[in-house]
Amino acid sequence: MNFISNIWNQPRTTAAGLLIAAVSVAGVLAQQGVSLGKVGTGTVVSLISALATALLGLLAKDPETASVQVGVAASQRDCRSASQQAKLGAWAMIALLLPLPWMQGCSERGIAQDIVNWTPSLQSAVVTVDSTAALLAPADAPIFAAATVGFDAATNLLVAQAKDYLANPSAGVLLQLQTAVVTMQQQVDAATLQAARIVDAASQQHALAAIQSVATIVSAILSLVQSISSQAAVTRMASSSTIKLAAVEPYLNRSLSAKIVAAHYAEPVDLARVQLAQAELAQVNAGF
Fold first, then answer.
1. What secondary structure letter does DSSP report for 277?
2. How many CB atoms lie within 10 A of CB 68?
3. What is the DSSP string of 129-155?
4. pLDDT number for residue 22
């Protein structure tokens, strides 16, 4: 009965929750190619998403002043919590208005440029991986080296394909780029699972952090490639991913990933965190 009374007593929160759910479901349906019919030049799904987002904007307002609390410490703690929730909710609202995570432009060329813009960071992260073995315990260094031995070659190929696609955005070059990013993603995921087997706690921490930086950038590139690929191509890419996101999820450091994305796009970490969640959801729904 508390559930029903909460719905009745908090209609604004309930409405916001339902609208967020509508936008989320519409986004998933759109990614899967489900339109539910046409409305003018758009689709029913896009109309539902747009209306839900607009209504969310109308519902948004600054949080009301909290009632008198018992004790000053409790009041300060509750205010900080409310402020953090309001802040995260605001960034979630902004993120809902974005067509896809991290897309700087709507054109394929803009996305291709965005992919290329990530490549210097990718190369730098791989250089860090190459030097990380020296920080590990003697028994762990060979394990880490074996796990990451293919990073340099895979990075060079991915960088080359990204630049080729920017210069010549053809279907054939896009196919090569799709193959290159999935290949690197699989190498990074395999390395993550191997590094997780390192027993020494300090060595494992160094190893996973180094690989995580590479994984974050590769995941960003994969999301961008996914956004310019057909549904059939994304399905093919996902089928080539034998190591799924669920397998490496326990070892992901999302705080580190959010900082990397925020620094790259010069945006708040809270917004980057929401974008990462969107990208991860899209990849899981696609079968990665």
1. H
2. 6
3. HHHHGGGS-TTTHHHHHHHTTTHHHHH
4. 59
